Amino acid sequence: MTSRNTLSYAYYPGCSLHASAGEYDLSTRELFRKLGIGLTEVPDWFCCGATPAHNVDELLSLSLCAKNMELAEKVGGDLAVACAACFSRLKTTQHVLSENDVKRKQVEKAIDAPVPMKGNVKHLLDILARDLGLDRLKQAVTKPLAGLKVACYYGCLLTRPTDVPNLDCVEAPTIMEDVLKAVGAETVAWSHRLECCGANFTLSRPGVVIQLSHAILDSAKEAGADCIMVACPLCHGNLDIRQEEIEGVYDTRYAMPVFYITQLVGLATGLGADKLGLDALIVNPMPLLKEKQLL
Amino acid sequence: MSRIGVFICHCGENISRTVDVERVAAQVGTLPGVAFSTDYKYMCSDPGQGLLKKAIQEQRLSHVVVAACSPRMHEKTFRKAVESAGLNPFLCEMANIREHCSWVHEDRDEATAKAIEIVGMMVERVKKNRVLPTITVPVTKRSLVIGGGIAGIQAALDIADAGHEVVLVEREPSIGGHMAQLSETFPTLDCSQCIMTPKMVDVANHPKITLYTYAEIEQVEGYIGNFQVTVRRKARSVDEDKCTGCGICMTKCPQKKIPNTFDRNLGMRPAIYVPFPQAVPNTPVIDRENCTKFKTGKCGVCQKVCGPGAVDYEQEDRLIVEPVGAIVVATGFDLYSIEEKPKGSAIKGYGEFGHGKIPDVIDGMTFERLASASGPTGGKILRPSDGREPKQIVFIQCVGSRAREKGISYCSKICCMYTAKHTMLYHHKVHDGQAYVFFMDARTPGKSYDEFWRRSIEEEEAVYIRGMVSRLYQKGDKIVVMGSDIAVGVQVEIEADMVVLATAVQPQKGADTLAQKLGISYDKYHFYSEAHAKLRPVECATAGIYLAGACQGPKDIPDTVSQASAAAAKVMTLFAKDKLEREPIVARVREAGCVGCFYCQKVCPYGAVEEKEIRDRQGNLVKVVAYVNPGVCGGCGTCQATCPSKSVELDGYTDEQIVAMIEAL
Amino acid sequence: MKKKKMLLSTETMDVDFVRKVEALSGTSVRRCFQCGKCSAGCPMATFMEHPPNRVVRLLQLGQWQRILAGRSIWYCASCETCSTRCPNKVHLASIMDALRKLSWDAEGPSKESYVQLANRLFLQNIRTYGRQYEMRLAAVFNVKSGQFLKDLMLGPKLITKGKLKMFHQKNKNMTEIEKIFGRIEEMRRNGEAL
After folding, report:
1. Any chain C CB within 8 A of the CB of B381?
2. Checking DSSP bridges between strand B92-96 and strand B63-68, what pairing results, if any?
3. Which residues of A touch C157 (CB under 8 A)?
4. pLDDT tens for residues B580-637?
5. Binary contact (A205, C177; C-beta < 8 A)
6. Are the Cβ atoms of A161 and C84 closer than 8 angstroms?
7. What pLDDT was estimated at residue C167?
8. How far is the C-alpha of B603 from the C-alpha of C185, rounded, in Å?
9. Where are the beta strands (DSSP E) in chain C?
10. How far is it, in rounded angstroms, from Cα C35 to Cα B398?
C-alpha cells in the first residue's frame, strides 16, 4: 500500500536498463530518491520476452510476464516500469488474462501459480504525472529547463492499443508534454511523435531502423527541437546510437541529443550529470546543455 | 360452457421449425372448454383468416385463441377477423409462441412442451374474457409538426394544403434547417436555396400554419386525437409583430465578433441577428449570452435605432398550450463533430486526423458553406487558415460512420453522394485544382445516383482511391495525408492544401429527451424508431405520432421529402374521421368497494381519474368515489396495482384473468 | 506462387487454419471489411510484399500458404498502429502474432530468415540466462547470419560508453524459467494449448 505522501513501488527495470540503457536505470533511481519515491527492485526478475516472445509464442510471452508479476507481488505496491516495451508487455498480459479465462488457466499452469491481478502496472510517466502529481513535481524543481525546446517522442507502445495501457489518449497524448512543462521546458508540436522507430529490427534488419528513425529525426529537426525525449531504451538506441549512421546514409547532420525522461526531469531537480549518466549518451548533450545554461 | 377455438400458426417455418405445431394442436384440443383446434402455415393470410371465420360459424365458437407471433403486429388482424365472423373482438386472444418460444429455443421437444403451456394459459384466460364495447373519442383536427427543416416544412405544407391547421415548432430562430446551409444538391446540382426558400415563404404565408420559431416542446400530454402540447417560446427580445425586418439593429450592433454557427463558424455575426439573409421569419433574435446589454447592462444601441420600437429587453419565455390530434416529429440530424470528444463519451474522436486542430481539415458542411454563393466567401473555395485557394484537395469518406471502434457502426447513407458532388463543385470553381477521394466503397443506390458518382470521376476528373487514411499531419502549410490504395496494394501520400471529412450523420442533440416527452422509442444511437421497419415506416409505435426525415435514420433530401409527405398522408387519414375508435382496454372502478382514498388519482399518468359523487334517492351525498374517464385512460393498469381495496380493474387484464393464467401452469 | 490463379473451393479454403488464428489472436478475421486503414498507417508496409490488409484478405479466403510463403509477417514491427486505428476493431497485430506462431511451428516456409534467427536467439537467451544479453545476442547473430562485420563500427563506441557489458550476473532462480518453458512444451504435447 502506498499512502498519499510516501509513494513506493516494486521496480521492474528490464534487460536493457541493466545493459545498454544503464543511464536510464541510474537516472530513474536517482530521480526517485530525490523525489522521495521508494523503488524496490523485483528480486530475480526475468526478461519479459519482449517482441520476439509475443511474436512467435504468445503463451510464453504471457507466462514470462505473469511470472514477473508474481515475483513483484512479493515486493508489494504497484509495479513501476521504465521501459515502454516491458510496460506494454506487462500491461497487455494483465489485460488479456483478465479478459480470457482459457489463456489465464494455461498461464497459471505454465507458471504453476495463480496470476496476481490486483497490482497495477505503471509506467514511470504515470507515476510522475499522476501519483506524485504535477504540482508536487513543480515544487521539486530547482533548476527549470527554461529555453530548452524538446520534442517528446512517445513511439508506438506507450499508449497503444486503445483499450490496454490506459496511460493517455491514444492519438493525442500529452502526458510527456505535461511533465516537461511542469519542469519548465518548452515542448514543440511535431508530426512524428507517435511513429514507429523500427524497434527491434535494429538487430535483424537495421536498414529498416535507419529509414524509419530518419523520418523521426527529420521531423523533430523541422519542428525546431533542440533535443528529443524518450521513455523507452529501444527508441533511444535507434535514435541515439544509430544517429551518426543515419546522418551518414542521408548525408545530413542532426546532432540531436536524445534524453530519457528521467534525465531531463532529474536535471531540473538539480541532479548532477554524473547521477544522470549523461556521459553515456552517444550524441553528446553537453554543448546544448551548456548553451542553455542548464549545467 | 365455453366453446373455444384454438388456431396454431406455423409462421412459415418460424414456429414449426422448432415447435411441433401438430402436436400442440392435438394436445390443446383435449383441454376442457376447447371445442376445436387446428394448425395452418400462415394464419394471418387471407386463407388463414378464412379458416378462422369458417370455424367460428360452423363450430359455433364462443372464444378464440390464436397461437402465433407477438400481439404487437397481428392482434388487430385477428380481432377484426373474429368481429367479421360475428364475435366480439375482445373474445379473441393471442398466445405468443414465436418470440416467447420458437425463436428463443432450440430443443424441439422442450419448445413444444412450452408452447402447449403458453396456449393452455391463454385458453384459461380467454374463458374469463368479457364482451367489451368499443370506445369512441373525438379527433382534434389540428397537427403539430416539430422541426422546421425540409421534412417539417414539407409535412406542414401538405397537411395545411389539405385544409387542416398546423402548428410548426422550430428550435432555431429561422426555419430552413440543414438544407438552407447547402450549396447545390445532388443528383441534379440545383441550388438548395432556390428550391428551399420559396417553400419557407409558403410556410410563413400559409393561412393554416401557425409558425413558432425559437421555440421548443415543453410538455406533451394526452393521446391520439387529443394531445395537449405545451410549447416554450423562448424570449427573442424582439417583438415579432412590430419588427419590420429592416435590419438596422444588426448593422448598428457594436458586438460583431460572434462566430456564425450557420456558416460553421467561418464568418462572424452581431449579437442581434438573423441566422442568414433569407431567414423566415425575417425577425432578429438577441443572443443574450453574447449581448453586451445583457452581460453588463450598458449598450442598448439596437433598441435606440429600432424605428418601430420592436426591441424588448424585458421579454420573457412564454408557454403556450396547443391542442392537437396528431404530431409529426421531424427534428433532423446533427453531424459527427471532428473536435475532440469528451472523456466518457461513447463516441470517440479522430485524434489521428488532428481532432479539429489542423485549421484546413474541415467537415462536409463547412465545405458546403464555402461553396455556397451566400456563404462567408461568396462561393469561393478558400482555406480557413490563410484564405488561399486549395490546389490539391483530399476528401475522406466514412469518418465516424461504419466505425465500430469510434462508436458508430451504421452507414450514414448520404456521404458518398455529397462527396461526389463536392468534387464537382470544386472542379467547377478551381479549374486547375485536383480532387482526391479516399473511400471504401461507393454506395449510390438512388435514381440517377450512380451515374452522378461516375460523372465525378469520368468527367469532373476526381481521383478516387479505394482505401482509407491512417493519419493526417501538418507539414509547413500542407497537410500530409497518409493513405493506401488497396487495389494497387501500396501506400499513398498526398500533400494536400485542404482536407474535407465526410462526417457521420447523428440524431440531434437532445433527441432522447424529446422522445421521452413524446413517449416514443429510439435506438441506441437515439434515432427514433418506426413502428415497423417495412410496413409502418412513418408511424411511431405510439399512436398519433409520425416520423419524417433524418430523425429516424440518415436520409437524403428526396427520401426525406417522400417520408414527410407520407407522414402528412397518415395525419390526413387520421383526420378523415370525426371520431376515433379506440381499444376498450380501460380501467373501471367498482363503486361499491371504493372508499374514496384517491391513491389512483395520484398515480395516474394520464390524469384520467375524476371524482364522482354518489347520492341516494333523496339527493343526499352518500360518498365520493373515483371515476375513470374512458376517453383519457391509457390502459396502463397502475391504478389497479395501487388500489388498496382492489376496487379498480383494467378491462382485458382483470385479476381474474391473470390468476386463471397462473393457475393453468 | 504470386501469380498463380486462386482456385476457391471448400477444399482449398483452409477454414481450420483461420479458426486457429482466431483462437490465438482472440479477434475476428471475418470482421475486416478491407478499408485499408491498417495498410495506410503501417510503418513497415513498404517492406512487405503483401500489405497488412491483404494479409487479412488472404486469411479470409483461407489462403495461408500465400501469406506464409512471403516475408510480410516477419516485417511487422508490432507497433500496433493497425489495431489502434482499425475502425472495425480487428486486432491485426494479434493476427500477425498468431500467423508468426503458426509459421514458426511449421518451421518455414517463409523467406525471411534474419528476423526468425534473431527471435530464436532471443528466446534461447531467455531460456539459458533468464535475461537478455545484448552483446552476446548481437555477436551470435552476426556469426549465425554470416554478417561478421555488421554494426562493427558501433561496438567500440558502445563499450567506451559502458553500454555493452561483458558480464552479467545470472538469475538465481534459473530452474524456474526452465520449468516454465518445460510446462508450456508439455501442455502443447498434450494438446492443452496451441
Report:
1. no
2. parallel
3. 241, 282
4. 888 899 999 999 999 999 999 999 877 789 999 999 999 999 999 999 988 778 888 9
5. no
6. yes
7. 61
8. 68
9. none
10. 10
Contacts of C37 in chain B (CB under 8 A): 467-470, 484
* Half-sphere exposure at residue B141, Cβ-oriented, CA atoms within 13 angstroms: 14
Nearest-by-Cβ selection for B406 from C41, C42, C87: C87
Query: Computed over its alpha carbons, how large is the radius of gyration of chain B?
Result: 31
Gap from C32 CA to chain A (nearest CA, Å): 17
pLDDT along chain C (194 residues), means of 10: 81 93 94 96 94 96 91 93 94 95 76 82 89 82 81 76 68 88 94 88
Cell 413517449 maps to which residue?
A: B519
> Three cell numbers at B597?
382514498
- The Cβ-side half-sphere exposure at A150, using a 13 Å CA radius, reads 30
Inter-chain touch B468–C40, beta carbons under 8 Å: yes
Residue B259 dihedral angles phi and psi, to the nearest 5°? -55, 135
Assign B470 to helix, strand or coil.
strand
Q: Is the pTM of this model over 0.70?
A: yes
Closest CA to B174 of B69, B246, B280: B280
Give residue for cell 534525465. Answer: A263
- Nearest CA distance, C122 vs chain B (angstrom): 32
pLDDT single digits (tens) B38-78: 999 999 999 999 999 999 999 999 999 999 999 988 999 99
Name the interface residues of B facing A (CB cutoff 8 Å): 340, 350-352, 355, 405, 473-475, 480
In this structure, what are the phi and psi dihedrals at residue B344, rounded to the nearest 5 degrees?
Answer: 90, -10
Instruction: Chain C: give the shortest CA distance to residue A163, in Å.
Output: 9
Split at pLDDT 50, 70, 90, the class of A2 is: very low
First to last CA, chain C: 28
Mutate one of B471, B473, B493 to test the A interface: name it (highest A CB count within 10 A).
B473
**Residue A3 banded pLDDT, cuts 50, 70, 90:** very low
Q: How many CB atoms are closer than 10 A to CB B13?
A: 10
Q: Using an 8 Å CB-CB cutoff, list chain A residues near C88.
A: none
Q: Minimum mean pLDDT among B133-142, B163-172, B379-388: which range?
A: B133-142
Interface test with B, best of A159, A160, A191, A219 (most B CBs within 10 A): A191
Is A129 exposed, middle or buried (CB count within 10 Å of its CB: 0-12, 13-18, 19+)? buried
DSSP B336: P
User: Which of C3, C31, C33, C37 should be substituted to probe chain B, the one whose Cβ sees the most B Cβ atoms within 10 Å?
Assistant: C37
